[in-house]
């Protein structure tokens, strides 16, 4: 009898323990669900804030482009062009913080890049805009106005609750289903497609800059002779480039054009990570991260060193830093290929470093892939001292180097580059044809604590 009683006590204790454990597990689950719900609300608020910033920046871009159309002063014209560039950059930053923004809003991202770069190219050309320039400005202004209207209408719907922004998980699921096994391009279907389906026509840009449409029609010199890669091979290349597990990457897009790509997305460190890989050669074309960057703990110099080391470790050992810019605690460094004594500006790579912990949160290599090739330079180079005599008595020469710069059409020009200081302390760059000694270009350097803009 006592043994039976003992067994009953043990059974009661076990049942009591299981009930208590179950209750505790339920409590943990409820608490975890509450925390997850709280984090989701915070994330949705971040997305809404980023969309509001995108809408505001596009509105300011629209305003700047409209003002440019009526600027008769060269000084005001250049100032407004710089403002347009700044707002286009701010809009791109906000777009990168949206879940899959660069995939879902591909046309928007392309327009912002083109409009900003074109405005800066006009500001630094140092001559009166041509009739074609004015027509392009008007067309860009009309496009920005149309985009501004679309975004503001969508923002009103978001505020009214009639539509919502998708979560990263929803977009991942839909896009992965859209790609399927046939490797067809992912079709969108989110709120963002209201913008993309009604996107205004973007004018063709013909000018001396990296987004010039006539330059974009060339075949990429940096990929010549390389074989095509499969989507799985491209996924492996993306993972290796970023030091991550390939299983994290979900196929989300299949880009066409002069640089056909495979596009992948991964959720990393609390943000969405987008990577595009060229289908020819499997080279990384672009990396974009929407991870929120906290307060900076690294100096700009430390960030530049991290970016340079990153490039060296990934097969780009001869890249020289040119300029950098800091926005929202993110340092973006422009690197150009150093070919012996010649700095090749067309071979451009941009690397973005989060200054809170040194993560690489951005990478763009289109300039490098489009232009990088073996070059033969003219042996008929004018003497530096002879060219320097044409700099001007009011300028102090700080440094000199040979530089290859892009020109109108599809050409490159070897130049003497002189970095100079004006009497009031401003820094400028002067370019003289290395073969003839003729002055070809003047660039103004706008320098402050956040970095350098070239105008």
UniProtKB/TrEMBL annotation:
**Cross-referenced InterPro entries, in alphabetical order?**
YpeB_N, YpeB_PepSY1-2
The secretion signal range is: none
Q: Name one GO biological process term.
A: spore germination
- Give the residues annotated as coiled coil: none
Q: In this protein, which residues make up the domain named Sporulation protein YpeB N-terminal?
A: 37-165
Q: Where is the Sporulation protein YpeB PepSY1 and PepSY2 domain?
A: 191-376
Q: Organism's domain of life?
A: Bacteria
Q: What is this protein called?
A: Germination protein YpeB
Q: Which gene encodes it?
A: ypeB
